[in-house]
Amino acid sequence: MEYSALTFRPSANIAELRESATIAVSQRAKALKAEGRSIIDLGAGEPDFDTPEPVRDAAKRSLDQGATRYTAVEGILPLRQAIATEANAHYRGADGVTAGEVVVSCGSKQSLYNACLTLFGPGDEVLVPTPSWTSYYEMVGLARATAVEVHGDPAQGYKVDVERLERHATPRTRGLMLNSPSNPTGAVYAADELRAILDLAAARAWWVISDEIYQRISYGEGIAPGALDVATRRDNLIVVNGVAKAWAMTGWRVGWTISPPAVAKAMAALQSHTTSNTATVSQHAALAALTLGEPVDAMVRAMVQEFRARRDAALPILQKSRALTVLPPDGAFYFYVKVPGAGSVPDAGGAFCHALLEQAGVAIVPGSAFRTPDWVRISYAADRAQVIEACTRIAATAEAMA
Ligand SMILES: Cc1ncc(COP(=O)(O)O)c(C=O)c1O
Question: What's the pTM?
Answer without folding.
Answer: 0.96
